[in-house]
Design brief:
Distance between the termini: 9 Å
Strand order of the largest sheet: 7-6-5-4-3-2-1-8
Number of helices: 7
Number of domains: 1
Strand content: 15-25%
Shape: globular
CATH superfamily: Aldolase class I
Oligomer: single chain
CATH class: Alpha Beta
Number of strands: 10
Structural class: alpha/beta
Radius of gyration: 16 Å
Helix content: 25-40%
Length: about 210
């Protein structure tokens, strides 16, 4: 299996951040969406970010934040990546790019093959699109999975990653089916909503990286 980048999202404690880093995650995610059970306030996000070594990238997950709040969050946390998980448009991402030096990702909910075509709208604007399952009550972290064969053989025009319902038990199959360059999990490594399980984090990283 080719090397795949691994992102553990929705981390909220020092222990789980340290576990993800030690297990070989290439990316971690900190969630600023207040309705989410994985929400962390800015001061905690900044403290968690400070624990992460330079070789692991930190993504700050935002949903529908206005320009001032976005700027404050970037200044406070100093993430490597801002991951937009709402209805943000290419124009919005372009505005953020003009005002900051961070990498930009855009999550896209996938119900059918036509949804994959939306990625082309972000070509040259988003550094990566993240294909996630559509239809959950929250934007991400729903535990729902994409129909992976939709991605098999799809000609991508933007660097991409796969999210949605990935667990230690199915991530290797998801990578084989889709050819994902990056896999992203949140609820798939939890014992309860918002409560990460360190053993599941380790197992996910091991399965995803084929070791």
């Amino acid at each position: 299996m080719a090397k795949v980048d691994v992102k553990i999202c929705g981390l909220s404690t020092p222990e789980t951040v340290d576990t993800a880093v030690a297990a070989g995650a290439t990316h971690i995610g900190l969630n600023l969406y207040e309705p989410s059970p994985r929400y962390v306030p800015l001061d905690r996000a900044a403290a968690l970010r400070a624990r992460v070594p330079e070789h692991v990238k930190v993504a700050l997950v935002m949903v529908g934040m206005d320009a001032d709040a976005t700027a404050r969050a970037i200044a406070a946390v100093k993430p490597d990546i801002v991951q937009f998980h709402g209805a943000e448009t290419p124009d919005w991402l372009a505005m953020v790019r003009d005002r900051s030096q961070v990498e930009l990702w855009k999550a896209i909910g996938v119900r059918n093959a036509q949804a994959l075509e939306q990625a082309a709208r972000f070509k040259g604007i988003a550094d990566r699109v993240l294909f996630d399952a559509a239809g959950g009550s929250m934007p991400g972290g729903s535990g729902l999975a994409i129909d992976w064969p939709l991605l098999a053989g799809f000609r991508h025009t933007v660097p991409w990653g796969l999210a949605g319902g990935l667990t230690p038990a199915n991530v290797a199959e998801a990578i084989r089916t889709t050819g994902a360059e990056l896999v992203d999990t949140s609820s798939g490594v939890e014992g309860a909503p918002g409560v990460k399980d360190v053993d599941l984090i380790r197992a996910f990283c091991k399965a995803a990286r084929g070791s």
